[in-house]
Specification:
The complex is a heterodimer of chains A (224) and B (226).
Chain A (H helix, E strand, L loop, with lengths): L4 E5 L4 H12 L5 E4 L7 H6 L8 E4 L2 E4 L1 H11 L10 H30 L3 H23 L11 H6 L3 H10 L10 H12 L1 H6 L3 H18 L1
Helix pairs in contact in A: 1-3, 4-5, 7-10
Chain B lengths: L7 E5 L4 H12 L4 E5 L7 H6 L8 E4 L2 E4 L1 H11 L10 H27 L2 H19 L15 H6 L1 H13 L10 H12 L1 H4 L5 H20 L1
Parallel strand pairs in B: 1-2
Antiparallel strand pairs in B: 1-3, 3-4
Classes of the chains: A alpha+beta (224), B alpha+beta (226).
């Protein structure tokens, strides 16, 4: 039976980017469908009725949602070039760190949002400090070299790629959150992604990405 | 040195549903393990050493190597001890099980906690959200006896504890969480699951858990007033 792989995504989404990296590493051909999140397609609502979000992978008509769940599915379905380690303990550690990264990313978002939407300098700085608290947690673990296996992109590295979006956020906000000085290990990691051949194909172009978030947050700040 | 050589040690807490679901996994796999009770809120040096990132239970130590996060631990147990598989073999069904476990942990459990710990309108909204999310979870049963099919599996042990804790929380916080009319199939499943001998024998003593829940609620209500 011919394989039919579709990915419903949003070009500016770090979660969608993860899936594209995973599919490219596996050499899986897929059809990409861009979703307008303000005008979701009937197909998306049908394939992800629970969350109504992207990314959604549809393989031979069967939908899978949630980026880390999708990544595991991809690894189990196309077994060459494994993304997760083979050893059960190493695999468990990879799952642990991917969850940690996701939790920290969501945790720093309120601080970022506060910084964007605040009218006062003090509140803005508070927001940045709150965000940096969670970045600190990531930096500490990364510095102790606990995160990453080797040179190639694996499950944890692919999951961590969403950290590039923090660099995007700071360009949009015109303020440095993820400074090389305060977060040398994280900074080095984001550079690793920027230099990687596969990743380069999947990350959206920089200028449009910055412009997109500027527009989004202009709305956020105005609505406050 | 404390630990169990090549064996398995579980650091847990008697009133923790997260430790409980790991215990269920170990029991279903017939794994011999040493159980070490943490006397929370005090944390043992062993716990702090083995889970420096989160400093929480449960922690599973196998051949001297520690793992944290209950669902990560359960998947590890499933992969190391291959008999009585918890997750299905097929990648699509595995993905569905993982999706729903994540949904329960991220959508049902926080709503339940808010319905338990808040008052007034916030509590009403949280309870409503919980009931709706449980309704959504019910759809994952797909007319089967258990989430795992004819027998219990990963998703059953991942979410089954909610049936026990929700009933206790309902009684203490005075708000409806399990609406049998709204979730007839899930209600039946909760009952059946919690009555299974291998599941039931691991539950914390119910009178002790009720007293603990009342204490906890009192503490939360007092904290809310300050």
């Amino acid at each position: 039976m011919a394989e039919e792989v579709k990915l419903f995504g949003k070009w500016a989404s770090p979660f969608c980017c993860r899936i594209e990296v995973a599919l490219k590493l596996k050499g899986v051909e897929y059809e990409y469908i861009e979703e307008d999140m303000l005008n979701k397609s009937p197909a998306l609502l049908n394939y992800n009725p629970v969350h109504k979000k992207i990314p959604v992978l549809v393989h031979n008509g069967k939908p899978i949602a949630e980026s880390l769940v999708i990544m595991e599915y991809i690894d189990e379905t196309w077994k060459h070039n494994p993304i997760l380690p083979i050893d059960p303990f190493e695999k468990a550690m990879a799952r642990f760190w991917a969850k940690f990264i996701d939790d920290k990313f969501w945790a720093l978002w309120p601080g970022v949002k506060k910084a964007i939407t605040s009218s006062g300098e003090k509140e803005r700085e508070e927001g940045i400090e709150e965000a940096q608290l969670h970045l600190n947690a990531l930096e500490t673990q990364l510095k102790e070299k606990k995160f990453f296996g080797g040179e190639k992109l694996g499950f944890v590295e692919i999951s961590a790629s969403l950290l590039i979006w923090i660099v995007v956020f700071q360009e949009v906000m015109g303020v440095e959150i993820l400074t090389q000085e305060k977060f040398p290990a994280l900074h080095k990691l984001t550079q690793k992604f920027v230099d990687d051949d596969v990743f380069k194909q999947c990350v959206p172009p920089w200028e449009p990405l910055v412009a997109y978030f500027k527009a989004q947050w202009g709305t956020l700040a105005a609505s406050k | 040195m404390a630990g169990n050589g090549d064996g398995v040690t579980l650091l847990g807490y008697w009133a923790s549903p997260y430790a409980l679901r790991v215990i269920w996994a170990l029991k279903l796999k017939e794994v011999h393990y040493e159980y070490r009770e943490e006397h929370l809120p005090d944390k043992s040096p062993m716990l702090l050493q083995y889970n420096p990132v989160h400093k929480k239970i449960p922690v599973l130590v196998h051949k001297g190597k520690p793992l944290a996060e209950s669902l990560v631990i359960i998947e590890y147990i499933d992969e190391v001890w291959k008999h009585n598989p918890l997750l299905p073999q097929d990648p699509y069904h595995r993905a569905k099980a993982r999706f729903w476990a994540k949904f329960a942990d991220e959508k049902c459990v926080p709503a339940m906690f808010r319905a338990f710990s808040k008052v007034g309108e916030e509590q009403v909204q949280a309870a409503k959200e919980l009931r709706e999310n449980l309704k959504t979870l019910e759809s994952a049963l797909e007319g089967k006896q258990y989430f795992g099919g004819e027998t219990i599996g990963f998703l059953d042990i991942a979410v089954g504890w909610i049936g026990c804790w929700a009933r206790m929380n309902e009684e203490v916080a005075g708000v409806n969480m399990i609406d049998a009319e709204m979730i007839p199939l899930l209600s039946v499943w909760f009952q059946k699951f919690l009555e299974l001998p291998i599941i039931k024998e691991c539950l914390p003593p119910q009178d002790k858990l009720l007293a603990h829940t009342k204490e906890f609620h009192k503490m939360l209500m007092m904290a809310a007033l300050t």
